[in-house]
Write a structure and sequence with these properties.
Blueprint lengths: L2 H14 L3 H11 L6 H12 L8 H10 L4 H25 L1 H11 L3 H14 L1 H7 L6 H11 L3 H26 L1 H9 L1 H22 L2
Helix pairs in contact: 1-2, 3-5, 4-5, 4-10, 5-6, 5-9, 5-10, 7-8, 7-9, 8-10, 10-11, 10-12, 11-12
């Protein structure tokens, strides 16, 4: 894999697009092909759960493809720091909703979804958190809403760990066992991949929830 060529192509894409979020995505993706890729993954996984717009999947896939033996290590890092970032999002919703939470939700155009998310939390509790790890709605919206709705913190953490872990480890497994064809498959059928991880996460959450009762 020619990292220099990939970086050059990403620079061209950054220069060609006028969409600031797309520019940011390409910039983050570029870190996957540098010696600071692990640190970029840690930052992205943590911050995406509370305020950053780019998901860690954008780094897990290319980093796992270039270094298959470290794929599960990358997935584990992403899962741990995504959950830690989710805790920050929860804290924002719990203690800083008016000063920061509302501004973040407004930034991502999610204020109109907040009442619906709150209803889901009231009805389905942390199962909604587990599902949140797989929906098109930014995960940070759910973590902030979880704090604002004051759902059980321990259940929130367990649901987050299982859902995010299932998602990232499934991506890593596909890259480890199938390589480049898996990357193409994920790009083409991302929603189906996420659905499979969703089912795995929900099953795991239900098992753990009943086990700790």
């Amino acid at each position: 894999m020619d990292f220099a060529q990939i970086k050059a192509e990403l620079k061209e894409r950054i220069a060609a697009t006028r969409n600031p979020l797309r520019k940011l995505y390409y910039w983050v993706l570029g870190w996957a092909y540098s010696k600071y890729g692990v640190w970029a993954l840690i930052f992205t996984a943590f911050s995406e759960s509370s305020f950053f717009p780019v998901a860690p999947d954008s780094l897990i896939v290319p980093m796992s493809l270039s270094r298959p033996k470290r794929a599960f290590y990358y997935a584990g890092l992403a899962a741990v720091f995504s959950v830690l970032g989710g805790m920050l999002g929860y804290a924002i919703g719990l203690w800083l909703m008016k000063s920061i939470g509302i501004k973040l939700l407004t930034l991502y155009g999610a204020m109109d979804k907040f009442n619906e998310i709150a209803r889901l939390y009231n009805k389905y509790d942390a199962v909604a958190v587990a599902a949140a790890g797989f929906t098109p709605i930014p995960y940070k919206v759910f973590t902030i809403a979880a704090g604002a709705c004051k759902i059980n913190f321990l259940v929130f953490v367990i649901a987050s760990a299982l859902s995010r872990g299932a998602r990232f480890f499934l991506e890593a497994a596909l890259m480890y066992f199938f390589g480049e064809p898996a990357k193409i498959f994920i790009e083409k059928y991302f929603n189906w991949v996420i659905l499979a991880a969703f089912v795995a996460g929900i099953v795991g959450f239900v098992v753990v929830k009943y086990a700790i009762k």
